[in-house]
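Session log. Operator J.P. requested a structure for one protein chain; no other inputs attached. Running the standard single-chain path with token output.
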Amino acid sequence: MTSPRYDRIGHGYASRRVEDPRLGERIRLALGDARTVVNVGAGAGSYEPEDRTVLAVEPSAVMAAQRPPGRPAIRATADQLPLHDRSVDAAMTVLSLHHWHPSQERGIRELCRVARDAVVIVTIDPQVSGEMWLMADYLHEVRDLDHRICPPVGRILDWLDRPAEVEVVPISRDTPDGTLMSFWAHPERVLDTAARAATSGFARQPDAVVERVVRDVAADLRSGAWDARHGRLRQLGEYDAGLRLIRASRGA
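Structure written below.
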């Protein structure tokens, strides 16, 4: 097994990427009455329903080490799940699909292979996320990378072998989950080293790119240019930054 990306960039995720209870509830509803669930790309364990039997699959030792006591993870990748066909009631993955590139289709088909019913995928719509001020005005590199490696929602639906529905999931301004999308109302987070490090978007970039973005955002905050362009966002309680929940079910 090659060294996963999160062995390099995953330190400290557990403290910054705290489960948002609103998204957690959506995931639990999407799982329906499933009692056994495989969570692929499970990371530090956020969004795993505590009222189900969860089998976590996580390739990164750094991420797996941040999981709560008694909740270990199998070291494996999405495209080769070490499970029999239809061996669990449901399969889920939360904001890990972009890290499966270039094996995303194989990974989605693996979720379908092992799940008897629900397949729940939380991902981003790269077209929508790319329009957020951070990517549109400053961090073009993430926008362009996401357009290359994040499959459009329609393509994901094509890979699924059962009927599916798509939910738009707005990001609340007070979300405790510090994804890059959570920066929509908090431009000051761009200046916070720990906040940046808890996002794969920044962590994947060369130092020169990060330094440029920090410099430009800091300058625009000092001058008032950011607020002149985007200050209206500070008044919103939630915002569509591209987060999507896909629920596929044989009974959908």
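Operator note: The longest helix spans residues 207-223.
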